[in-house]
Write a structure and sequence with these properties.
This protein is mainly alpha-helical and 66 residues long. The chain is built from 3 helices and no strands. The termini are far apart.
């Protein structure tokens, strides 16, 4: 169960203070999620991707500063 708390703690930490490091981390995470999705898409495997990945990509692209 500790593994489930870590992402929540990270999210809470990032939402408290907007620092250059947190912005950079958010942008890097967003880029990784999009790259993962595009790779699956180009291989024709997007139907096999977990729905949480697609949700994370949608949310990350909304909040990402591109």
């Amino acid at each position: 169960m500790a593994g489930h708390n870590q992402p929540r703690q990270l999210q809470a930490m990032l939402s408290r203070a907007e620092t250059p490091e947190s912005t950079e981390l958010r942008q890097a995470t967003s880029a990784l999620l999009r790259a993962s999705w595009y790779l699956l898409e180009t291989m024709g495997l997007e139907p096999l991707a977990p729905s949480r990945l697609h949700q994370a990509i949608e949310k990350s692209t909304i909040y990402a500063e591109l």
